[in-house]
């Protein structure tokens, strides 16, 4: 069988959504899957190089890779009233040119941050190093992502929610905050790309339907960085029914991210999500 290299982040929601394949609960008659875990900005860089067949990406990156990768509808993470947090030391007052640590230049949160704080001095770090960078005084503030938003030092406080920044820029319509998604290499035969999306979609669906069992297995095998209570909270935020298949409102939200980035000069082209999805109707017409 043809092997598909899949890359995802090491945070709990990505591991959770992929693990049904790893455990053999979901499979394919024509494809096998191998997986690699890396922090999201590393995955964004690798996507720019076309390293993996299927990869997790920040939605903020996609307009830079759309010619080489198609968007998948599944394994998506959106914020609905929540998301990354801009944190600082208690009592600190941030000047317009404050120094801030972000998790990567191509992340969606970095794009929104740059729109809201154009004078800030940005350094990029692995998301696991951001809290300590603020505590040590290396930077004045930092944007926490993934499980880091659930708990952090009592010496720190939230300056601003990225959700609130999103609400300012998204327009009048109530749209969820697009954070992470999946993309598949366009050079794959279309039938393989469709099968890849089918398997990944089924994996997310099965994982979500067996959340208690799968969560227990992840904890027992030390595959996640949080305890069972935090894992449950985190998965309810970012790996839920809305992660299985992108809805129309989610696609509108992704398109709004693309518009904001294009208007700010971050992208050379204005694209939309829908034309870049896998055309699953191909198999239906071929098999008719």
UniProtKB/TrEMBL annotation:
EC number of this enzyme: 4.1.99.29
- What is this protein's function? Catalyzes the conversion of cyclic dehypoxanthine futalosine (cyclic DHFL) into 1,4-dihydroxy-6-naphthoate, a step in the biosynthesis of menaquinone (MK, vitamin K2).
Report what the protein is called.
Answer: 1,4-dihydroxy-6-naphtoate synthase
Report the sequence similarity comment from the record: Belongs to the MqnA/MqnD family. MqnD subfamily.
Catalytic class of the enzyme: lyase
Instruction: Indicate the secretion signal residues.
Output: none
Would you kindly state one Gene Ontology biological process term found in this protein's UniProt entry?
Answer: menaquinone biosynthetic process
What the entry lists under Gene3D superfamilies is as follows: Periplasmic binding protein-like II
> In the record, what terms sit under GO molecular function?
carbon-carbon lyase activity
The biological pathway it contributes to is: Quinol/quinone metabolism; menaquinone biosynthesis
Per UniProt, the keywords (alphabetical) are: Lyase, Menaquinone biosynthesis
Which catalysed reactions does the entry list for this protein? cyclic dehypoxanthinylfutalosinate = 1,4-dihydroxy-6-naphthoate + dihydroxyacetone
- What is the organism of origin for this protein? Campylobacter iguaniorum
Under InterPro entries, the record lists: Menaquinone_biosynth (IPR003773), MqnD (IPR030869)
Q: Kindly give the HAMAP family that the UniProt entry links to this protein.
A: MqnD (MF_00996)
- Source organism superkingdom: Bacteria
Active site per the UniProt annotation? 146
């Amino acid at each position: 069988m043809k092997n598909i290299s899949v890359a995802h982040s090491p945070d709990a929601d990505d591991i959770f959504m992929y693990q049904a394949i790893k455990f053999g609960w979901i499979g394919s008659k024509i494809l096998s899957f191998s997986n690699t875990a890396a922090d999201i900005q590393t995955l964004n860089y690798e996507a720019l190089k076309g390293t993996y067949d299927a990869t997790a990406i920040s939605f903020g990156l996609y307009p830079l890779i759309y010619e080489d990768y198609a968007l998948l509808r599944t394994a998506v993470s959106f914020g609905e009233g929540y998301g990354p947090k801009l944190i600082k030391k208690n009592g600190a007052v941030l000047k317009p040119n404050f120094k801030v640590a972000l998790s990567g230049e191509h992340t969606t949160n970095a794009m929104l941050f740059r729109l809201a704080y154009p004078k800030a001095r940005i350094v990029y770090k692995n998301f696991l190093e951001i809290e300590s960078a603020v505590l040590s005084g290396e930077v004045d503030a930092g944007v926490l992502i993934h499980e880091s938003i659930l708990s952090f030092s009592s010496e720190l406080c939230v300056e601003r929610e990225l959700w609130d920044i999103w609400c300012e820029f998204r327009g009048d319509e109530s749209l969820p905050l697009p954070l992470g998604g999946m993309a598949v290499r366009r050079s794959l035969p279309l039938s393989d790309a469709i099968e890849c999306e089918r398997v990944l979609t089924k994996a997310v669906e099965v994982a979500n339907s067996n959340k208690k069992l799968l969560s227990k297995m992840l904890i027992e095998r030390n595959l996640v960085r949080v305890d069972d209570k935090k894992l449950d909270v985190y998965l309810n935020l970012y790996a839920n029914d809305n992660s299985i298949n992108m809805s129309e409102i989610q696609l509108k939200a992704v398109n709004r991210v693309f518009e904001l980035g294009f208007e700010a000069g971050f992208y050379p082209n204005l694209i939309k999500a829908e034309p870049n999805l896998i055309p699953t109707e191909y198999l239906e017409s071929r098999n008719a």
